[in-house]
Amino acid sequence: MSNRVALVTGGTGGIGTAICKALADAGCTVVAGTTRAEKGEAWQAKMKEEGYDMHFAAGDVTDHASCQAMVQAAEAAAGGPIDVLVNNAGITKDGRFVKMSPENWSAVIKTNLDSVYNVTSHVVGGMTERGFGRVINISSVNGEKGQFGQCNYSAAKAGMHGFTMALAQETAAKGVTVNTVSPGYIGTEMVMAIPEKVRESIIATIPVGRLGEPEEIGAAVAYIYSAGFMTGANLSINGGLHMH
Ligand code: CAA
Question: Which residue's CA is the closest to the ligand 1 atom numbered 29?
Answer without folding.
Answer: 95
